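Lecture 7 notes: from sequence to structure.

We start with a single chain of 204 residues. Read the sequence below before looking at the structure.
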Amino acid sequence: MLDIPKKRILLIGDSISIGYTPFVAAMLKDKADVQRPDANCGSTVLGLRQIDAWLGNKKWDVIHFNFGLHDLRRMDEEGNFDPDAKGERQVSLSEYEKNLMELVCCLKETGARLIWCSTTPVPDGCQWRVSGDEKNYNEVALKVMTAENIQVNDLHAAVLQELAKFQNPNDVHFNEEGYEFLARVVVRAINAEDNNCNPHEEAK
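Now the structure, written as tokens:
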């Protein structure tokens, strides 16, 4: 019986992806080698600077990626993160769109199957962020991914009705059960056969 080589999967994202990566790796351990950069991938600005290093020289079968929560962080007039979230966003919507298009071009060159992951909800009371900003960034990202024919994993929609159970109070981060839930949604997206499936349909 021939040994079937494991798929090589790269997860790119911020601390939310750091939280669900171990669960994804465990769920796919029999058929995939799941890795992520040894860093918080932050904003699209950082992504453009580091994407070549994150991709390395390895051949990836699937790349599941997200940027957003750091792009929408609010800055004060001196360029520091604004705890009251009254300043300007770190990366404007127009710059975010431009950066995403450049990142997609880089990722397409790998030949990997690409899956964009929508940015998870920003609750009320967060430092540095305004609840609802993520919806505007997700709309821009959806526009880019639709134009580029890239599969979309809508984590935002999947977890939206479960925030009281899974998300920490006044915080964009999740508890352990929440990260496991997100991981199941990610795994379903990775296992999806085509763009017409609903990867979070059975995640609850």
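Confidence is low (pLDDT under 50) at residues 194-202. Keep this in mind for problem set 3.
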